């Protein structure tokens, strides 16, 4: 089954949105496979956002993502990578549709509440960056017969 890496960013944690966000993915039918509250080190932030290293906003991005605790998660399910991106909405919350997480709770591109892997390659890379193998839980959920 496909897995993705999702993270409530420091603004989402401070604004009490962890429960709201977890609720949406649970209600959709995805399965939580790992989760932890953590403060991202400078090194991990630079690595995670490595693709944006040359962009003018890189410094601010690293400062923001390390500015307070984040809630890091691994979620599992059919097509979870793309479906989670759709549930998050566009990167710029001002362009994100109502009903999406960023559309409902975000205001600016610099503080857009949630991160989600954008491809199978990013998902594998980001899960490996944030979680040890012993932190990913493999289990059967009784509702799966009613979802698939
Ligand atoms: P992330 O989930 O944070 O990776 O966002 P997403 O994949 O939707 O968008 P990308 B393009 O990866 O943006 C990464 C972070 O950079 C911020 N950003 C982006 C800016 O501040 N200014 C910009 O012009 C662009 C393009 C938004 C993202 N996050 N945060 N926080
Ligand atoms: Mg991204």
Task: Summarize the structure in words.
The protein has 148 residues and is an alpha+beta fold. The chain has one domain (2-137): 2-Layer Sandwich (Alpha-Beta Plaits), CATH 3.30.70. Helix content is 41%, strand content 16%. It has 8 helices and 4 strands; from the N terminus they run βααβααβααβαα. The protein has helices spanning 10-14, 18-28, 42-48, 58-65, 80-88, 101-105, 120-130, 144-147; strands at 3-8, 31-38, 70-76, 114-116. It has a 4-stranded antiparallel beta sheet. The chain is globular. The mean pLDDT is 97. Bound molecules: 3'-azido-3'-deoxy-thymidine-5'-alpha borano triphosphate and magnesium ion.
Strand content: 15-25%
Largest beta-sheet characterization: 4 strands, antiparallel
Query: Under the CATH scheme, which architecture would be assigned?
Result: 2-Layer Sandwich
Number of E-state strands: 4
EC number: 2.7.4.6
Subcellular location: Cytoplasm
Modified residues (Phosphoserine): 122
Pfam family, one: NDK
Give a short synopsis of this structure.
With 148 residues, this protein is an alpha+beta fold.
Features:
148 residues, alpha+beta, Alpha-Beta Plaits, 4-stranded antiparallel sheet, globular, binds 3'-azido-3'-deoxy-thymidine-5'-alpha borano triphosphate, binds magnesium ion
């Amino acid at each position: 089954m496909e897995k993705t890496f999702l993270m409530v960013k420091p603004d989402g944690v401070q604004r009490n949105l962890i429960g709201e966000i977890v609720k949406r993915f649970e209600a959709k039918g995805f399965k939580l496979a790992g989760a932890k509250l953590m403060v991202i080190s400078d090194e991990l932030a630079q690595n995670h956002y490595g693709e944006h290293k040359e962009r003018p906003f890189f410094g601010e991005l690293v400062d923001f993502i390390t500015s307070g605790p984040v809630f890091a998660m691994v979620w599992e399910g059919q097509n979870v990578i793309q479906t989670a991106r759709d549930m998050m909405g566009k990167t710029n919350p001002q362009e994100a549709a109502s009903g999406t997480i960023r559309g409902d709770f975000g205001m600016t591109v610099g503080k857009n509440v949630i991160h989600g892997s954008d491809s199978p390659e990013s998902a594998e890379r980001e899960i490996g960056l944030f979680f040890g193998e012993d932190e990913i839980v493999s289990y059967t959920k009784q509702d799966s017969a009613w979802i698939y």
